[in-house]
Write a structure and sequence with these properties.
heterotrimer, A mainly alpha (639), B mainly alpha (109), C mainly alpha (165), B: 109 residues, mainly alpha, Helix Hairpins, C: mainly alpha, 0% strand, membrane (chain C), NADH_UbQ/plastoQ_OxRdtase_su6 (chain C), quinone (chain C), cell membrane (chain C), NAD (chain C)
Chain lengths: 639, 109, 165
């Protein structure tokens, strides 16, 4: 299987080429088969690869496979090779990307079946998978950066998939620009890494970094820049506003790119570079603070949103905040565990939302839904599972992963734990609010929508069911010792984080404390579920229509804390003003003036000089005489 | 003849140079200050002749007949020039009823 | 010896008269006199054949041609166009500058100031003919073609345009 590693990214690339070129000629069925088949093949190879890594780990090895394909370029002392690194971390990530990617491809076959851009859509999806695999597989920062940029591009293309809608296109631009800001940080970090370590290979960099002292200022700079990159890609404060807008793309895209895979690239990258971060505690604290702040802010906003996808988008931002909190407090395994479970249940929730939207004829406002339980039984059940999972109610997957992060947070600083718990309260509330508003109560949509209600076809429900099963069982990957588990994931990933664990303070909480923490968070989630039930089902409350009088706090949340407006005022408008200034003053008068000035200078001087061509022969002769005199004088004086 | 030839002996070559330069400069001035095309052509003849004389002086000074041969060529050239030039003047006069050189200023921007 | 300076003075005087006389016919006549003084110079330089040719061709043929054209066009003092004073002054100054430059150049190149000793036979027809037809045969033939061309050209230019009329 090791020989086939290169096929993993290559097959989706081939799928992209074939679908991209034949998007207008191939029949839809063939496009679907190519698109899904490519990802499925990669998935199968990934499984085989994973089993190989797993065997190696069982045998006591570190599970690393390094494959060097060719030297990309050599400049001076820098040699960048095109090589792949498979280790426990990337092998799991491979499974997530290709596995969930395949399910979402399958889902898209039905979801996008009526769309004109069917072929284009699958081409983009395959391209995205290709870049994501490159990001995951790369054995140095440069290959990772290629994938990093590539997924950003695909994200842009897919958010703006319905580019004829102006606001969708600007959402795509917003995502792209915000990502670029982060990417700049990443790129600078890569340069600094090159300058400091003289290499971009993970193995070289990390082994050198292990010898450095904790709190090194260069490391601090590198990690801060890397974190800026991660916060752009993974939608953290202050670069998170693009993700909710990214919901303009088709729902499968939101599920694949903006929930399960691409947005976790930042976490993957930090987990990959964990040793650098462990050695700079300041950055770790910063990550923890930013993470928890993002989790809280996004959860707070999500409470009052009425667009089903917007709720899920803010939920994603919030969960990503959790993951960063986990990274910040040194729970690398926990953060990555949350990446896995989040990929399961958030993809599930998005696909479920897509199913609802599909059934409701593209209605996304929850105020116009309700009572869909009967019409969409499979969707309802799976969405319910997803909601319970994300809310953190045991024994579903979200509980375990969130609990691990919270436990580490408690160990690091109880205040972080408290805030995390608050965010968990919010999470449980808005998720159950979403569920109740959508599936309970009476139908609030139009007649036409009601008559059209239908359960989705098998291509859509099968992925839902599979994901639901994963969302239920995903938590078993890493059951803590306190619950008589064996921390399978932690021990599997051990070689990746070994160096960091050697440095960091060992995590230790008594089992009693862990029990209490678990009980508190589980009870909190259940309490919020009941509270939401009373509010939205028993009392039949419906969120207020736009323009109605609302409380200040509600308004603040509903208006997304005015962050977009703030950015507009603080960044966009000054930039616009500066651009106008540059355009009107610098460009128009200065640069244009310069260019036109040069032109008119020659026009005017030409007008002046052409007076010499008077047509009077005498004048010419006069000049000739002067010329002769001048030449002779020159000869006299300088020879 | 002999006495005349003796007369010339003792004139430095430099004086011929100065004398011919003066005549040449007079020719230049004539070109510059007159508007009559024919007079301008005459001034040119003046310049040509000053050069002729100088060539003859050099020829005598070096005892080399080539200088005098050059003078013949210059004369032939001058004759050709005058013939063509005067023909042009006549044509110009026919067309413009003037031989003012400043009336020939059409050839410009 | 003083004959040279006297004749040179006459030459310069009549040359100046040539360019400063308003009446073009008088100008031509002054030029003829100037050329006559040149002929004298040629004789003084022992270039007898040149003197004869200058006398016949220049004074006789070319200057008469000038005079002929002037009279043909019926030009006299009244129709003479004159330049403004400032142009005249400027032209004169420029010419003077040229002269000064020439003189300066002569000082720099330091011409051998030895007196001229003309060779007795060099200017005779026999001598010149030998040089002309031995060393300068090709230029001589070429100049004959030049003269022929000039003649044809002059005739073509000056004749009345019968085709168009």
């Amino acid at each position: 299987m090791i020989e086939l590693i290169w096929l993993i990214p290559l097959i989706p690339l081939l799928g992209f080429v074939v679908n991209g070129l034949g998007r207008n000629y191939l029949p839809k069925k063939l496009i679907a088969i190519i698109g899904c088949g490519a990802v499925l093949t990669s998935f199968i190879i990934s499984i085989a690869l994973f089993s190989e890594v797993y065997q190696d780990r069982l045998a006591g090895g570190d599970g690393q496979i390094f494959k060097n394909y060719f030297d990309w370029f050599t400049v001076g002392n820098l040699n960048v090779s095109f090589s792949f690194l498979i280790d426990p971390l990337s092998s799991i990530m491979l499974l997530i990307v290709t596995g969930i990617g395949f399910l979402i491809h399958l889902y898209s076959v039905s979801y996008m079946s009526h769309d004109d851009g069917f072929g284009k859509f699958f081409a983009y999806l395959n391209l995205f998978i290709f870049f994501m695999l490159l990001l995951v597989l790369g054995s140095n920062y440069l290959i990772m950066f290629i994938g990093w940029e590539g997924v950003g591009l695909c994200s842009y293309l897919l958010i703006g998939f319905w580019y004829k809608n102006g606001s969708f296109a600007s959402a795509a631009k917003k995502a792209f620009v915000m990502n670029r800001i982060g990417d700049l940080g990443f790129l600078l970090a890569v340069f600094f890494i090159l300058d400091t370590f003289g290499s971009l290979e993970f193995s070289t960099v990390f082994s050198q970094a292990t010898g450095m002292t904790s709190g090194d200022s260069t490391l601090l700079l590198i990690t801060i820049l890397l974190f800026i990159g991660a916060s752009g890609k993974s939608a953290q404060i202050p670069l998170f506003t693009w993700l909710p807008d990214a919901m303009a793309g088709p729902t499968p895209v939101s599920a694949l790119i903006h929930a399960a895979t691409m947005v976790t690239a930042g976490i993957y990258m930090i987990a990959r570079s964990n040793i650098l971060f462990t050695l700079s505690p300041i950055t770790m604290q910063l990550i923890a603070v930013i993470g928890i702040a993002t989790a809280l802010v996004a959860a707070f906003i999500a409470i009052t949103q009425n667009d089903i996808k917007k709720v899920l988008a803010y939920s994603t931002v919030s969960q990503l905040g959790y993951m960063f909190l986990g990274l910040g407090v040194g729970a690398f395994t926990g953060a990555f565990f949350h990446v896995i479970t989040h990929a399961f249940f958030k993809a599930l929730l998005f696909l479920g939302a897509g199913s609802v939207i599909h059934a409701m004829s593209n209605e996304q406002d929850m105020r116009n839904m309700g009572g869909l339980k009967k019409a969409l039984p499979i969707t309802y059940v799976t969405m319910l599972i997803g909601t319970i999972a994300i809310a953190g109610i045991p024994p579903l997957s979200g509980f375990f992963s969130k609990d691990e992060i919270l436990a580490h947070a408690f160990f690091a600083n109880p205040v972080l734990w408290g805030l995390g718990l608050l965010a968990a309260f919010f999470t449980a509330f808005y998720m159950f609010r979403l569920l109740y508003l959508t599936f309970f109560g009476k139908f609030r949509g139009t007649e036409a929508q009601q008559s059209h209600l239908h359960e989705s076809p098998w291509q859509m429900t099968v992925p839902l069911i599979i994901l639901a099963i994963l969302a239920i069982g995903g938590g078993l990957l890493n059951v803590p010792e306190a619950l008589h588990g064996n921390h399978w994931l932690a021990s599997f990933l051990q070689p990746v984080f070994a160096d960091s664990q050697a440095i960091a303070t060992p995590f230790h909480l008594s089992h009693e404390t862990e029990y209490i923490l678990m009980a508190v968070s589980a009870l909190a989630a259940i309490a919020m579920a009941i509270f939401a039930y009373r509010k939205y089902v028993s009392n039949n409350e419906i969120p207020k229509a736009d323009g109605e009088e609302t409380g200040a706090l509600y308004n603040l949340s509903y208006k997304k804390l005015y962050i977009d407006e703030l950015y507009d005022k603080v960044i966009v408008q000054p930039l616009n003003a500066a651009s106008r200034f540059l355009y009107k003053v610098v460009d128009k008068s200065l640069i244009d003036g310069l260019v036109n000035g040069i032109g008119s200078f020659f026009v005017f001087s030409g007008k002046g000089i052409r007076q010499l061509q008077s047509g009077y022969v005498t004048f010419y002769i006069f000049m000739m005489v002067l010329g002769v005199i001048a030449i002779m004088l020159y000869g006299l004086l300088y020879s | 003849m002999g006495t005349i030839v003796e007369q010339i002996q003792g004139i430095p070559l430099n004086h011929y140079l100065i004398f011919c330069s003066v005549i040449f400069a007079i020719g230049v001035i004539g070109v510059l200050i007159r508007r009559n095309v024919i007079i301008i052509m005459m001034s040119i003849e003046l310049m040509l002749n000053s050069v002729n004389l100088l060539l003859a002086a050099f020829s005598a000074y070096h005892g080399d007949a080539s200088g005098q041969v050059f003078v013949f060529f210059i004369m032939a050239l001058a004759a050709a020039e005058v013939a063509v030039g005067l023909a042009i003047v006549i044509m110009v006069y026919r067309n413009t009823k003037s031989i003012d050189i400043d009336s020939l200023n059409k050839l410009r921007w | 010896m003083s004959i040279f300076y006297f004749v040179a003075f006459l030459s310069i005087f009549f040359a100046l008269m040539t360019i400063f006389t308003k009446n073009p016919v008088h100008s031509v006549l002054y030029l003829v006199i100037t050329f006559f003084t040149f002929t004298v110079h040629y004789i003084l330089l022992n270039a007898q054949f040149l003197a004869v040719v200058n006398f016949i061709v220049y004074m006789g043929a070319i200057m008469v041609l000038f005079l002929f054209v002037l009279m043909l066009l019926n030009l006299n003092k009244d129709t003479e166009p004159m330049k403004s004073t400032i142009v005249k002054i400027m032209g004169t100054v420029a010419g003077m500058c040229l002269l000064v430059t020439f003189l300066g150049a002569f000082r720099v190149i330091e011409v051998n100031n030895e007196a001229i000793t003309p060779h007795a036979n060099i200017g005779l027809v026999k001598n010149l003919g030998q040089v002309l037809f031995k060393d300068f045969l090709l230029p001589f033939e070429l100049s004959s073609i030049l003269l022929l061309t000039a003649m044809v050209g002059a005739v073509l230019l000056a004749k009345k345009d019968t085709n168009k009329a």
